Amino acid sequence: MTAPTKSSHSGPSDPAAASSGVPLHAPVIDWFADHARDLPWRRPEAGAWGVMVSEFMLQQTPVSRVLPVYEQWLARWPRPADLAAEAPGEAVRAWGRLGYPRRALRLHGAAAAITERHGGDVPSDHAQLLALPGIGEYTAAAVASFAYGQRHPVLDTNVRRVFARAVTGVQYPPNATTAAERKLARALLPEQESRAARWAAASMELGALVCTAKNESCRRCPIAGQCAWRLAGKPAHEGPPRRGQTYAGTDRQVRGRLLAVLREASGAVPQSALDQVWHEPVQRARALDGLVSDGLVEPLADGLYRLPLS
DNA sequence: GAGCCGTGGAT
DNA sequence: TATCCAAGGCT
Asked: pLDDT tens digits, residue range A125-168?
């Protein structure tokens, strides 16, 4: 620590300074300097495209499962235009078992839009990022921050949990992001751009490695001493139960099985092959229809199906 | 805004 | 074994 700056930007009405006069970002950024994981999309050579690909893949999917697919993806499609030149079905196939395969379709669509509208370069403008398919509030801020060093509130599930505990004093954040959370995130953002970008990555990493959903490790937390939830005795979550998603027997499971068959086939697949994956014909047909309407499957003549060529 | 959309590891 | 949950987005 060489900067004894007094953070004169924290006024009395600043929620960031409401519970404690000490800003959170300094200890968290220092902690990050020592404990950040060496992830491929954090290396300089990843570039904005690497960052963007990783963000798509990491939407609801753990780092450990993303790593191998990310490497293959970047080796095969090192630039957006390389992916855009392929059939969307190839993106779906290369997505493998990461889950939520519509993300592969959207990433392909985003690569096409980047190639057409932005000369093949991932845009650095937040609004232009937000306009791309598959990029919402979180991902736009993440790409702008991680790839271009810009100052944006980056509110993912990790950061929301860290804020809920450290500042608000509750175990878990609400199910959906609220205006209050956005306001808080903006208030906590360091003024300096490079510092804000560092804070975004650091607060996210803290939630991923230390302030985890279960079995949090306050012993290793750089802000444990100022954590409102911990200081309150770590009260258990109140309110509606956090939505638990069932899976067995759902359309999602059927869709997954159907798409797995198509992914592993080299070309078109007959209806009869798809009929093997699920016994109940109504649900099976509904799932297949859903895949087709989502653009993940292309129906051909004679009851054949394949991954989309266009 | 609630519901939907995959998959597999950890507990 | 059943449940939880992992860097969300879209309708």
From this structure: 999 999 999 999 999 999 999 999 999 999 999 999 999 999 99
- Give me the CA A207–C1' C6 separation in Å, rounded: 12
Q: Flag whether pLDDT at A15 surpasses 70.
A: no
Give the global pTM: 0.93
Give the tens place of pLDDT for each residue, A237-267. 887 767 667 888 899 999 999 999 999 999 9
Determine the Cα–Cα distance for residues A167 and A231; give it in Å rounded to an integer. 11
Domain A40-148, second-level architecture = Orthogonal Bundle (1.10)
Q: Whole-number Å distance, CA A81 to C1' C6?
A: 29
Protein CB footprint (7 Å) on chain C nucleotides: 3-10
**CB count in 10 Å sphere of residue A189:** 21
Q: Which nucleotide is nearest to A41 (CA to C1')?
A: C7
User: Is any atom of nucleic acid chain B found less than 7 Å from the CB of residue A252?
Assistant: yes
CB A260 within 8 A of CB A296: no
- In one letter, which amino acid is A7? S
Alpha-carbon dihedral sign for residues A222, A225, A229, A230: positive
Architecture in CATH of A30-37+153-192+201-231:
Orthogonal Bundle (1.10)
